[in-house]
Amino acid sequence: MTSIYMYHAVGDTKQIGGADPHYAVTAKQFEKQIEAIAESIPLAHQVDNDSKISTHCITFDDGHISNYLVAFPILKKHGLAAEFYVNSSTVGTGCYMSWQQLEEMHKAGMSIQSHGHTHSYFSDMTDEQIESELQTSKQMIEQRLGNRVTVFAPPGGRIDKRVVKAAKHIGYECIATSRPGLVSCSALFEVPRFAIIKTTTTARVKAWKKSMSQETLKEVIRFNVFRIAKLVLGNHRYEKMRARLLGDDGTQMS
Ligand SMILES: [Zn+2]
Question: For labeling, which of 8, 39, 119, 144 is most exposed (least CB within 10 Å)?
Answer without folding.
Answer: 39
